[in-house]
């Protein structure tokens, strides 16, 4: 008995069983060789025929086929080195196909359908900005250029399955910038001929996978490739972890600088005959760093033109774009604007070089319910923003926006601003002859941009330890300040920009007035606390109030208490001002410049009450001088004889008015008459009245002495 099977060699000359098998194999091999020889003779004529048929089907594009390989077994046609060029711009080619294989779709045979299966292997698609513009401007839509007929011209059977294996799509922008690419593209569309379901119901399943910008793009859905007049599509897509840096060279052409950031998008795309709908369920930008410098020339602002073009495209009839949720996380956005201008654009308030870049850091933005179509009032677009601003400050804002409101976009936003340093605004202040240093700002309120008015309501404003100097070098300095403040301080029944200040406070401020004329001098308030409540530049029945308390020239105590009617076109206010025990020696520069003398000793107190109504002003000015000593022979010995005599006369005038019991010099003057320029801003009228009252009280009888010199 054999323990295992052993094959015994067949003796020489033994007959082979089933000789027909060997014969069949030999015949098939011979037929294959013959078929290959026959096919080889018809490959070239067939290549030329297919190339001609493909080009007859196309409009605006030309195809060249490098070689054709026909496989009888398997009924396969393979086109090699296929190139597609755009006739209007033939360089570079639009498509290069190393291999285009078409054969019978064997799976469709199970449904008793004789159709074709096509595979594009390693295709390369090249798109340039110029070619895209040419296609966009061509009156013949890209879907009407015969692509379906061109694909079907290659094979006698109708196309049912299409695959793209390891494809690549490259987009080239202007200049020598690296292209944007979709790499390792896999695409599959099945049941194109609708052999398994009813027409009109997106019968063809599609699938897309690719790598792009360091991330991935995936899409799945269904299509109807033979819907008339255009194919239709319904697909879900998702873009993950796309890096924004590769698009930075392209963004440079739009004055955008991108240094980092990633993008994620998920949504649904529906192409129908009557409408194209894009529904983005999620848009997320993580850690972006983007800077934008706005060109001062309106014709040179590509970002604004691109945004306008995108807005027009999204709002065209038949196009709908909905964005359910947008988030920016930990971003940095910088904006450098060209200038601050008046409404008509003719008056430049601040030059671009003086404006600090607006930088939003640690930015987190969340917006919901964005649509290219008008939304109901009950469901507006909402947003919430939180960020650092100007390095140390914090900004939080939330509200709603309606980009489709007419005649312009409307916005309602509540905001809270904290710990903003004033130093970055020093160049802006210098434009209006102010020197600004130190200080921080906090504010909360609401910005309301309506159809016909912009309103800024400041519920609370707090400025801590500011140092502000107004340096008047020329008369134009004051005129420039008047122009820029008139829009927000001159009351109107309904101004185009309304400013309301409910509660404004300044704590521990320093305010200095500097006159850099022929004889410079300065006046200063230090350790100043200011409160303003109830201000508005729109007519209102409410009255506001203002108070100030501080140190004058580091010696006297100054205070102002005032009430005013908000929004009156004619000044309407009551004001009391007190200045007590100011050291006159601190005012010697002023006395020399305005009076032509200085003092050796003395203290000065000043009181005034002023009321403005119906274009008139009424009030009084009262001043007290104590221990006044104008002329000192030893101190003034080096002065000209005329100056010494003049100062002596001023001293005599003080002595004549001296109250022997109190050792004080007292003067009083009444103020009454029409306001010279009643249409001027109220602040300007108040400053003018205080200035005149101050001079009249500080230099008693000075004009008489000047006439007798």
Essential attributes:
30-stranded mixed β-sheet; 4 domains; 20% helix; alpha+beta; disordered N terminus; single chain; 709 residues; disordered C terminus; 32 strands; 12 helices; two-stranded antiparallel sheet; elongated
Structure description:
With 709 residues, the chain is α+β, with helices and mostly antiparallel strands. It contains twelve helices and 32 strands. It has four domains: 36-243, no CATH class; 273-410, no CATH class; 422-536, no CATH class; 577-708, no CATH class. A hairpin with a 5-residue loop joins strand 24 (497-515) and strand 25. Residues 1-18, 25-31, 33-40, 641-662 and 701-709 have low confidence and may be disordered.
